[in-house]
């Protein structure tokens, strides 16, 4: 069930047709308060387009503290960036055009799904188990990080049937939105404006649902915004996300930035990607040595050779001898990979039986079956000690 706050008869009839005959309607905030007191199990409020924005945001700010499981959606006749930013800061989960009935229904389902997670969150259950976090990293660009990240996230969602969030932490040049043809209507940039008010409800308004069980948090659309995303903000975001999702997959930038160091510290698995060329192999060796110096356990690392079947003068054995550890996964080369990117989809999503998809599935199998270790240390402190 949902309750709609608004007085337009025409709009309310549209809501009833979209959401069902049991939809309730109240004409004022005072009436809404009475309704919610009488119905403590209600989880969804939809604010009609005639309610002024300040009243709607004040309502959201009040309930995000007193009743965090209550989802509030805002409908407008016109949605622009200023409305979206103000709504997100207040805790409104989504802003939808009132004429888009299909999107209203989808947003209502997403909100109710999130509300059901709140009932079992750490706010009421201190023993709640957090999800696993997987960092996909290479110190050199062009190794296939984004391809592996997107396909792995889809594989985990499809294989486990559990919730997955893919995070684009290549903050200046992230390509997930382009690779999957997602319009960047919201991104991690919006979290900057929230400052100390980042919670699960706030983050739920920033992620974009891509497929069932599969959400995405995009990198900033403007590379300049990357400088405002601090390591503290990154830690707060990742800490909240792993309480919201069963698996969080992080597509990183090809550098040990403060944000990526935080991700390394939090992550349960470090997927180190290389290809069969000398510069990339050198960077892999340097990366492994750096992680050793930072005190992060080698047991977290999964070394992956992408395009492992290319005849490039180096072999997988050369990789293993260079870094002193075994390669866990070999991903073959295929023209189907750039073709899938150009179509705006993952190869796993279009052909889960493809050799590349099967290799990615083997990564997912490792994550699903293998217990993770945590370092128990703050990586930034360790970095300072090593200088």
CATH superfamily of the largest domain: P-loop containing nucleotide triphosphate hydrolases
Q: Tell me roughly what share of residues is in helical segments.
A: 40-55%
Class based on secondary structure composition and strand pairing: alpha/beta
Query: How many helical stretches?
Result: 17
Major β-sheet profile: 8 strands, mixed
Low-confidence stretches: 120-128, 370-387
Q: How far from one another are the termini? A: 57 Å
Order of helix and strand elements from N to C terminus: EHEHEHEHEHEHEHHHEEHEHEHEHEHHHH
Give the domain tally.
2
Overall morphology: elongated
- Mean pLDDT score: 86
Strand order of the largest sheet: 8-9-7-10-6-11-12-13
Quaternary organisation: single chain
The CATH class label of the largest domain is Alpha Beta
Q: CATH topology of the largest domain, anyone?
A: Rossmann fold
Which architecture of the largest domain does the CATH hierarchy give at level 2?
3-Layer(aba) Sandwich
The total beta strand count reads: 13
- What is the beta-strand fraction? 15-25%
State Rg.
22 Å
